[in-house]
Amino acid sequence: MMIRRQAVLFLMACLAIVTAWKFYVNAIAYDPLDRDAVKHASIKETIVAKSDYAPAWDKEIFEKNLFSPSRTYLEPKPVSVTASVPPPQRPALALKGIVLDNFGDFVAYLEINQAKAVPLRKGDKVEEIEVSDISEKKVVLQWNNETITMSIEKVKTISNIPRTGR
User: Fold this and answer.
1) Which residues of 34-53 are buried (b: 16+ CB within 10 A; e: fewer)?
2) What is the DSSP pairing of strand 93-100 with strand 106-112?
3) pLDDT at 131
4) Which pLDDT value is given to residue 47?
5) pTM score of the predicted model
6) What is the pLDDT of residue 137?
7) Domain 93-151, what architecture?
8) For residue 15, what pLDDT is reported?
9) Domain residues of the chain, as ranges?
């Protein structure tokens, strides 16, 4: 009884090993591009025509396979920059006058690119031009990290000082 049991277990083990080996050869180790494997299959079966057998994938599909270990990352070619961006052109500025308003703040009338003069106070920003400081005779502007100082030495400022009649 014991020998019969061992013989049956031995036969089952041998059958399992042969089945595993067949599975490995036919499924896991199968190379779809191996023409010899296809030729052997066509020789074994003489009933099927030779033209019916072909590899599962042709060479082009095999090379373009997303999961192929031979496929690697390609560095993109550097793009050459031919034209550089010219620096922005400084706007044409003209200081038309400085006045003292009702609140005691100076207001500068500035003409930008020959447009109508715009009243600007300290801190105002027009067309990337920011007013940094205004005094009686001069205006300090900031444009693209450049300081522009404009003064009106020849133009008289208007003040709120009452005039006495003569």
Assistant:
1) eeebbeeeeeeeeeeeeeee
2) antiparallel
3) 92
4) 52
5) 0.42
6) 87
7) Roll (2.30)
8) 96
9) 2-63, 93-151
Q: Which residues contact 100 (CB under 8 A, 6 or more apart)?
A: 106, 107, 157, 158, 159, 160
Residues of the chain with pLDDT under 50: 42, 48, 155
Look up residue 79 and give its two tokens.
């793009």
Whether residue 68 contacts residue 57, with contact meaning beta carbons closer than 8 Å, is answered with: no
Q: Please provide the DSSP assignment of the chain as one string.
A: -HHHHHHHHHHHHHHHHHHHHHHIIIIIS--TT-HHHHHHHHHH-SSS-GGG---SS-HHHHHT-TT-TT--PPPPPPPPP-SPPPPPPPPPEEEEEEEE-TTS-EEEEEEETT---EEE-TT-EETTEEEEEE-SSEEEEEETTEEEEEE-SSSPPB--PPPPP-
Residues 6+ apart with CB under 8 A from 123: 130, 131
pLDDT of 159: 58
**Which residue type sits at 128?**
E
Tokens of 144: 């693209």
Q: Sheet holding 129-134: strands in order across?
A: 125-126, 129-134, 138-143, 146-151
pLDDT (0 to 100) of residue 6: 94
The CA dihedral of 23, 25, 27, 31, to the nearest 10 degrees, is 180
